[in-house]
Amino acid sequence: MGHITENAIKQISEAFGRKLQDSGITRIQWIALYYVKAKKRISQRELSNLMNVQDSSAGRLIDRLERDGLIERERNDIDRRVIYITLSDMGDKLISDLMLIGIKFNNDLVAGIDEEELIIYERVLKKMISNITK
What we know:
The chain has six helices and three strands; from the N terminus they run ααβααββαα. It is mainly alpha-helical. The chain has one domain (2-132): Orthogonal Bundle (Arc Repressor Mutant, subunit A). It starts with a helix and ends with a helix.
């Protein structure tokens, strides 16, 4: 099961990355911008947790997004160690435009799979994760 799952993740990730090639951002950057858009304002730690990456990796990613003018950082007034991230106007427009690519990709990915199968798929994956995180 591990091999099948790893292979599927790799192929899906690479295919989505190819869909984003013309946009000028990577799949990882898209995911970060997606989470920031969804949360409106998110701490660097929360973003790294959502993306399941190390804080240092998230930091480098955020550095790049800030350098490209897509996000803005702001320190918490109470705890200066906490850094919040928000989308810049340019970042908000970019991820809003690119959401269509994500929606189309998702629709293509699940084409021909009925809703009941998707519900079972999600349930099985959650059980598998639960089995290894007990």
